[in-house]
Amino acid sequence: MTEPTYEVVKSGFVALVGRPNAGKSTLVNALVGSKVAITSNTPQTTRHRLRAIVDQEDAQIVFVDTPGLHKPEDALGEELNRSAMMALSDVDVACLVIDASQQIGPGDRWVAHRVAEAKAARVLILTKVDIARPEEVEKQLVVARGLAKFDEVVVCSAREAFNLDGVIAAVKSHLPDGPRYFPRDMPTDQSVVVMLAEFIRERVLHNTRDEVPHAVGVVIEDMKYSKKSDTTTIMAIIFVERESQKGIIVGKSGDMIRKIGTDARVDLERLLGTKVYLDLRVKVKKDWRRDASQIKRFGYGEGR
Ligand SMILES: Nc1nc2c(ncn2[C@@H]2O[C@H](COP(=O)(O)OP(=O)(O)O)[C@@H](O)[C@H]2O)c(=O)[nH]1
Ligand SMILES: [Mg+2]
Question: pLDDT for 206-259, tens place per residue?
Fold first, then answer.
């Protein structure tokens, strides 16, 4: 037997699944310690399957954040489900993320069945315990434990960074020996262009409601850096499905689009480490969510 030529650590892939809004993406950001995934209280916020990497001296854990599993209503929804299911088919650990503050329902049960079928260690993560009373947490744990046969059970709060170590330890104990799959200083496998588009879309989600968030897709058209002014100029297009949605996003005499731009710039500048000039436009592309080729063009589902 020869020794491997790489450093052997505990390493592997860990899927986070759960119904939309359970708190998966917020947990990923908390575990990695920087913003790699966008979050909002609009279900179906996450459209990409993204990998987020926690690197430690003796381990490298690759978390796979997935769109929430749900009953699909259009081609985009189908693609998102497919992407979440694929994430489950090929991981070392499957984590079922349950919201401690919401009653467990058919949505959670359906996802739990998928987790029970996976050939992986199973970890139950009860999150958002900061907004549930202790006796609610206890009750929720009893019901959640009954959803599948779990190897580990942990409670945590992503928002208050409570027991994130516990989550890491529970997952790590089920990882095999292996190489570091990613460079040590790489918190995510998403390209910069994908993250820029996502950070803009997040600001649209936070500033609009009802049907508008679901109708939005963002594409980065161009990006240029000027050394002289240390500024990156980004041209981005926000696509919507109807003129009325365009009106909402542009806002009265452009108020809304300006606010979205100002809000987004904070994250873009942090990501790029330069000043950012953001040129945002809104265009109507009728029914893009029903059209599989358009969904691919936006890079949603499998991503990239
Ligand atoms: N109070 C509290 N809210 C949370 C926590 N984690 C997530 N949230 C909120 O729950 C909503 C859904 O979170 P998100 O991570 O986007 O859910 P996902 O759809 O499962 O990825 C957002 O409004 C988050 O701010 C938590 O630990 N505590
Ligand atoms: Mg998410």
Answer: 999 888 888 999 999 999 999 999 999 999 999 999 999 999 999 999 999 999
Residues 251-296: pLDDT tens digits? 999 999 999 999 999 999 999 999 999 999 999 999 888 887 787 7
Q: Which atom of ligand 1 is nearest to the CA of 44?
A: 19
Domain boundary among 128, 146, 178: 178
Ligand 2 geometric centre to CA of 62 (Å): 16
139 and 199 in a single domain? The answer is: no
Alpha carbon nearest to ligand 1 atom 19, residue: 21
Task: Return residues with CB closer than 5 A to ligand 2 (ion).
Answer: 24-25, 46
The number of the ligand nearest the C-alpha atom of 23 reads 1
The range of the structural domain enclosing residue 88 comes to: 9-178
Specify the number of domains making up the chain.
2
CATH number at residue 238: 3.30.300.20
Q: pTM of this prediction?
A: 0.91
Residue located nearest, by CA, to atom 3 of ligand 1: 128
**3-state SS assignment for residue 293:** helix
Task: Check whether 83 has a pLDDT greater than 50.
Answer: yes
Whether residue 4 lies inside any domain: the answer is no
Tell me whether residue 133 is in a domain: yes
Q: Calculate how far, in angstroms, residue 197's C-alpha sits from the geometric centre of ligand 2.
A: 15
Burial label, 108 (beta-carbon count in 10 A; 0-12, 13-18, 19+) = buried
Name which of 132, 122, 126 is nearest 156 in CA terms.
126
With a Cβ cut-off of 6 Å, ligand 1 is lined by 18, 20-26, 39-41, 45-46, 68, 127-128, 130-131, 157-159
Kindly report the CATH number assigned to the domain that includes residue 31.
Answer: 3.40.50.300
95 and 238 co-located in one domain: no
- 251 and 132 in one domain? no
Q: Are 162 and 37 in the same domain?
A: yes
How would you list the strands of the sheet with 275-284, edge to edge?
A: 217-226, 231-240, 275-284
Please identify which residue in the block is written with the tokens 């990613």: 182
pLDDT tens digit string along 160-183? 999 999 999 999 999 999 999 999
CA of 77 to the centre of ligand 2 (A): 14
CA-nearest of 193, 259, 245, 256 to 214 is: 245
